[in-house]
Design goal:
- The structure is a homodimer.
- By secondary structure, chain A is of the alpha/beta class.
- Chain A has a single domain, classed as Rossmann fold.
- Chain A is built from 4 helices and 4 strands.
- In chain A, strands 2-1-3-4 form a 4-stranded parallel β-sheet, with helices on both faces.
- The first copy, chain A, is globular and about 50 Å long.
- Chain A starts with a strand and ends with a helix.
- At the A-B interface, strand 1, helix 1 and helix 4 of A face strand 1, helix 1 and helix 4 of B.
Chain lengths: ~120, ~120
């Protein structure tokens, strides 16, 4: 068994329905990565949050964790809040490899898909 | 000349760099829609905001305006704030056709691109 985990890290919101696209994203990625534990975690307003999710993955024997910020822009949440959380997680779990990807909105293919959606929405 | 305009509507943030992917999105869509006025507008923390942008487009002779919320989840900003703003805009500009698309995160192709990005980030 691989010891890999993928955490889709999203902002969170008060409206429960806000999480729907992130839950679909979890389903899509989980189906394509059957040996990887794919989890959704939020920064605020929703649970589970990142520390509890990482602790649960560690307890489950996952040692190689990739956090992908499912954010479009990189603001203070990704520039300041997330690095602090990850620093604390690395201290709390020294045996884990915790990697943090760039924000999804930095990916040219993601932006290309959003651009196509905008153009189709004009018609 | 077409009288169409496309407004990419984003949340806004304190960090100026947060807007970078949205500015790239504006460049991509603008290049592909040379006759359409493509504008970026924010809900809060950044300018320009939606009312000023719509007023400027109306003054410029644009009568058919599509607003695409470049948001992943649909929370209170899209369920409550945006409809109120659009209602006021329709009252203020009765001669404009103002259409509002679904959030970009509701589009399956956008989610598919984000999923591919997440999977690639694992390697």
């Amino acid at each position: 068994m691989t010891q890999k985990a993928l955490i889709l890290f999203a902002h969170g919101a008060r409206a429960a329905g806000w999480a729907a696209p992130f839950e679909r994203l979890q389903q899509i990625t989980s189906a394509q990565l059957p040996e990887v534990a794919v989890r959704l975690a939020f920064l605020e307003l929703m649970t589970p949050q990142l520390p509890g999710t990482v602790a649960a993955l560690a307890a489950d024997g996952r040692t190689d964790i990739t956090i992908v910020p499912v954010f479009l822009g990189q603001g203070s949440h990704l520039l300041r809040d997330l690095p602090l959380i990850v620093e604390e997680l690395r201290i709390a779990h020294p045996n884990l490899l915790i990697r943090v990807a760039a924000a999804a909105g930095e990916d040219p293919d993601v932006l290309g898909a959003i651009a196509r959606y905008c153009i189709v929405s004009m018609n």
